[in-house]
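User: ok so my PI wants both of these folded by tonight, can you help

Assistant: No problem, let's get them done. Here's the first:
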Amino acid sequence: MIRPILNYKIFNMKILVMGLPGSGKTYLTERLAPLLEAAWYNADKVRDMANDWDFSDDGRTRQSNRMRTFADFEKSNGRYVICDFVCPTKETRANFNADITIWMDTIKEGRFEDTNQMFISPKKYDFKVTHKEADMWAFLIEKDIREKMND
């Protein structure tokens, strides 16, 4: 299901691809980033660079801050940027402050019970992906973003 994005004429933007571990965030982003010629930050790679695998509330907040910092840098330099990470709570999503949110609602439970317990489904999103056909979704999302830019 695609919910239309309301009147934006932005040539640089932060896109969040969020959902439970195993929902297909990275797989979709891998296909969408080249279509938009976007910078791409994957949460696992960012955690690895920081050598920070802390999944406590503080660790998740730190990770959201890191992802926001990278994304804000790219956006301030006139680029699209896509960050794919779980972003499990209303607070982590608000902190990231995406221009576009893509919710990967393809699974009901991920492989980590602690994440399942804290994950809160978003009430606000621009795209809700309900099945793992990433090539199709990447094309539809890219097309919608480009059409809205040209309105």
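One down. Here's the second:
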Amino acid sequence: MAQKEIVLEEDISGPGGEAEQAGYLVHKLIIAGKRGSPDRWHFRRGILVIIEYKKVGEHLSGNQVKRIKELREAGFTVHVCETHDEARRALKIGPYA
């Protein structure tokens, strides 16, 4: 059975998670009128890392595809992570520091 998305998100980006331990300021943003915004926004030393967490094999919703496309067209990188290691790699933490 695949791991639940919330477990992955909380382990890496939740309060006291690996991202905070690595010095990131982490926000879970809910943007009015913008359904499908990525799950977590990570800030550290002038760098922004945006992550949408998904359960292994789960697809992005139409709204998520739209929001990620908007952000990428605006010049931002948005990572879609299904595993702890993918998120660590995106954040350059742990063995990927």
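The chain has a mean pLDDT of 95. The first strand starts at residue 25 and ends at 27. Good luck tonight!
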